[in-house]
Specification:
alpha+beta; SH3 type barrels; 2 domains; two-stranded antiparallel ribbon; elongated
Length: 109
């Protein structure tokens, strides 16, 4: 009986975790839809090849994410060969900001 109760509690915990994850995905989806419906605020660019998104405008800066061909980004600032961009992470739909070498980007809008 105790084992059955423990299993039910474990299942309840798993269901709560799944419910929380679904809520998170739903909220992220709403944020992405709102962003996609918004007009292009800044200069938009498209990644033309896979590229590291770095914390600093340096080839040795920590990699915070990766851009893939076709990813659209908003250009925030340019500094020499580096561009500070914002993009929405495909999996989480949350914005990420970082630096990418401008050789990896082409103007998109």
């Amino acid at each position: 009986m105790a084992q059955l109760l423990a299993q039910e509690q474990e299942q309840g915990e798993v269901l709560r975790e799944i419910s929380e994850e679904l809520r998170h995905v739903h909220e992220a989806g709403k944020a992405l839809v709102a962003r996609l419906d918004a007009p292009c605020q800044g200069v938009c660019a498209k990644a033309v090849r896979e590229a590291p998104l770095r914390a600093e405008a340096s080839p040795t800066g920590a990699v915070v994410a990766r851009l893939y061909p076709g990813d659209l980004v908003e250009v925030l600032h340019e500094e020499g060969r580096w561009v500070r961009v914002r993009y929405f992470h495909a999996r989480t739909a949350y914005p990420k900001e970082g630096w990418v070498n401008k050789d990896h980007l082409r103007r998109a809008c």
